């Protein structure tokens, strides 16, 4: 860690370039590259997981919305009741004609 330059400033880690650092062996450089790669992968996985969760919530919300709207619209449809009433009236007329023809 680098020493703070001014009083009241916190110390921070100094970023190094492994290719320019004279005291590092090739094995140490390779290990540093592996660690950096693993950290990037971890960050990428976390970011993708968050996106996937948001996408799943969005798809679920749309699905529930369509499902709810379907139930709402079907509950307001009265055309089947009207068809049933027309069919009952037609049956009654057919019975009346059959009774009239039989007498």
Structure in words:
With 103 residues, this protein is mainly alpha-helical. Helices cover 72% and strands 0% of the residues. The chain is rod-shaped, with a radius of gyration of 38 Å. Residues 1-25 are annotated as: Disordered. One of its GO terms (cellular component) is mitochondrial inner membrane. Component of 250-400 kDa complexes called cytochrome oxidase assembly intermediates or COA complexes. It comes from Zosterops borbonicus.
Note the topology.
Layout: H1 26-75, H2 79-102
Task: Assess the beta-strand content as a share of residues.
Answer: under 5%
How would the global form be characterised? rod-shaped
Task: Quickly count the helices.
Answer: 2
Helical fraction equals over 70%
Structural class: mainly alpha
Ranges where pLDDT stays below 50 over 5 or more residues in a row are none
Taken in chain order, the helices and strands follow as HH
Span between N and C termini?
A: 113 Å
- Rg computed from alpha carbons, rounded to a whole number of angstroms: 38 Å
> If you average the pLDDT, what whole number results?
84
Number of strands: 0
Largest sheet: none
Region (Disordered): 1-25
Subunit structure: Component of 250-400 kDa complexes called cytochrome oxidase assembly intermediates or COA complexes.
Transmembrane segments: 52-72
InterPro entries: Coa3 (IPR041752), Coa3_CC (IPR018628)
